[in-house]
Amino acid sequence: MPSAWGQGLSAFSDTAAPRPYHGRAMSAPLRVGSVPYLVGRPVDTGLEHEPGITFVREVPARLVEGLREGRLDVACVSSIELFRQPDYRYLDGIAVVGRGFVGSVQVFLRRPIDEVRRLALDPSSRAAAALVRVLLAERADGGPEYIEVPAGADPRAIDADAWLRIGDAALREHLTDEAQPVFNPSQEWTRRTGLPFVFALWIVRPGVDVTPHLDAFARARARGAASTDTLAREAAAAWQLPVAACQKYLAEECSYQPHGAELAAALAAFQARAAALDLCLADAAPTPIALPTAHAQADR
Asked: What's the count of helices (H) and strands (E) in the chain, helices before strands?
């Protein structure tokens, strides 16, 4: 993410290890967080109404902090976080995945990508920032200079050749100014690897017993799948964008149910490339948590 990412794990600004779970009272709710973007709704719809769960929405960088500081037990958060601390687990079969072009993660260009020398990074991003670094590290010059943008600032306003933007703001910017050239990281990742890219998934903090709530996460995904068209129409109306473009984004550009070997292969490929740049731990081995069998089979 910031320029410090490339200087090794000791330079991370968010290195604090997740605080261990010490056994809260049985009546204590599971503290869950998700992204505030449209793309999160297909996996978290209705979780705020599930018994035994308290729910917040924050940008990925804040969700990472919540997991590490012990404010959150589970978060739908950047995939790179899986490999930045030991002992994480994740829900298998629910994730935000791109299998090509994804409109909500874009590098907007002022010059061709091979000529970019300074690139401003969205301060909300984690996985996308790491992915951009992985992809551009393969350039002959080792990639551009990365500029850390302060929280709340607009990366477009930075004196740079390109800027990374994520989330609804990136989607709106792209759809309202399609003449602006872009480099799409997800599309390039799939072209090079043949694999989907996992942007976010449900990460469980060490020691947290999420088993009693697995059905709630499966129900949220089922509600989201049934609501895709409604979500797209609501977004189109709010943003004054074509309905078809929002439908394409939610239903075609993104997917939410990677399974088993596919999810594991995509995550392992990202970890290996990121670790080679010292962006994460090479030996982190997060454990998948299987959804209840009936839900997993229904998703397929």
From this structure: 10, 12
Structural domain boundaries in the chain: 21-96+198-240+256-299, 105-193
Predicted model pTM: 0.86
The CATH class of 105-193 is alpha beta
21-96+198-240+256-299 maps to which CATH number?
Answer: 3.40.190.10
pLDDT digits (tens, 9 = 90+) for 87-124: 999 999 999 999 999 999 999 999 999 999 999 999 88
Q: What's the CA gap between 136 and 45, in Å, rounded?
A: 35
Q: 70-96 b/e with 16+ CB inside 10 Å = b? A: bbbbbbbbbbbbbbbbeebbbbbbbbb
- Here the tokens at position 135 are 């992809």
DSSP 128-190: HHHHHHHHHTTSTT---EEEEPPTT--GGGSSSSEEEEEHHHHHHHHHH-TTS-EE-HHHHHH
Q: Which two tokens stand for residue 185?
A: 């990281």
Phi, psi of 91 (to 5 degrees): -80, 120
